[in-house]
Amino acid sequence: MIAAITATAALPPALWLLSAYRSRVVSVGRAIRHTAVSQTASVNASVIVLSGNDSEALERLLDRIFSQNFDGQMEVIVVNDGKSENVKDVVTRMRNSRRANNLHITFTPPETRNVSHRKLSITLGVKAARHPVAVIIDEQSAIPSDRWLTAMTSPFADEQIQIVLGSALPDPEADISPKGSKGYRAFTHAADAVAWLSAALRHCPYRGCGGNIAYRRQLFFDNKGFSSALNLRDGDDDIFINRVATSSNTAVMIAPEALVTYSSPTSRSEFRSRRPRRFFTARLLRRSTPRFFGFSSAMAWLFTLLTVLSISLAIISRDWITTAAAATLGIGVWLTLALTWRYTIKAICGRRLLLALPPMILFRPLTNMRHKWLSRLRAKEYYTWG
Fold this sequence. Notes:
The protein contains 13 helices and 10 strands. With about 375 residues, the protein is α/β, with parallel strands linked by helices. It folds into 2 domains: about 1-25 and about 290-380; about 35-265, Spore Coat Polysaccharide Biosynthesis Protein SpsA, Chain A (Alpha-Beta Complex), CATH 3.90.550. The strands form 2 sheets. The protein has a 7-stranded mixed β-sheet, sandwiched between helices. α4 (about 85-95) links the parallel β2 (about 75-80) and β3. α3 runs parallel beside α4 and α10 (about 270-280) crosses α13. The longest helix is centred in the C-terminal third of the chain and has 29 residues, at about 290-315. The chain is elongated. The mean pLDDT is about 90.
């Protein structure tokens, strides 16, 4: 009797997981597969490439950008934030080989202190741009199609659109850790993307990915750029988008032609360093979406615990009908969620997983709590001064 009651108690969280939670996750995968790039003539755009010291990656990216099938006028501005002279050589060589008079380079002053270099790089790039739309991308990004720029700028044909959010995920193969947890790190990056993309698709944008984003220059200037977060080392794009994005001025572009991956090497140590920094600035963002996924994680844990408990009690009492029913429900719910996540992760070019997904979904809130705690512990490290 108690086993049957426990099994019945598992039904409400199961319904939540199969309806609200699954709907949010699958919405991103469906949007990717059903979003087509508009044939509308693209607006004129300035592509701002944030460059460090990887001259080889920069050369590959510039070659890809200048191979874009783009109808509008385009210029490319490389903002060199590294110390390598090779970056300047790459730009000069590319300018000469392609006769690209629309390729320019600027740099951040090496003596700059007490300011996020990424914020400074973006600001310099936007100020140097002369076209109305600025498209931001990192040097280690891999552009999937010669229609990437058309995809990222086509929503601006609507004069109300001020921001276009695109997706950028780390290449799973770029994880350089010799062993362990690569799949979980790949899932975490994908789950973060699904959270904010699903919110934007529901017309509740609250953050974006700085490795693939576009906005009107005038919007940047009208809102004084990153002035509200100059004292923070991170969170530039997130905080800016959270402050200026609305349901009416923001579009999401996740057509397959617009999905970017980046090959910046990742590792376990880098992951453990960056995640707390991300949580530190996330406290300044709107909380409705994180709360939704946090509640869904609680429902996943509750459902799992009730299912395991009901099966255990049913076996002890030799109630085989309840055992079979609870086991079938448990397997059905988790298999459905695993297939849903696999469908969406595959769509956003993440690492393909299946059987490992249920434990990852359960483990994720635990690591999130740890990283939130570390973000509070290291708070002083995340300010540029004071």
